[in-house]
Input
Amino acid sequence: MYGTTMIGTLAKGVGVETIRAELEAWEKDRNVTGYRSSHVLVADDGRTVVNVAIFDTKESYVALADDPEQDAWWQEHYAPLLDGEPRWIDGAWIS
Output
């Protein structure tokens, strides 16, 4: 399996329920080939967010990452929830 981890800071006023709603909408609306699951952690500080997305292969992840529709969705739905640019870490999942 392959995936990405995003580490960012939530914009002021953005809470857990907003993040949950966007993730559920993305899973329903985008129906991405090779997508397995996402796990989101909102830290106890209420601002740090870690989003892990898992795919069956690197190719399926890269296809999503290179998809202009995904970029448009990100810019409209998720980027506004963050304060600044997140850090991304891509790689193979061992377990």
Remarks:
- The first strand starts at residue 2 and ends at 9.
- The chain has a mean pLDDT of 95.
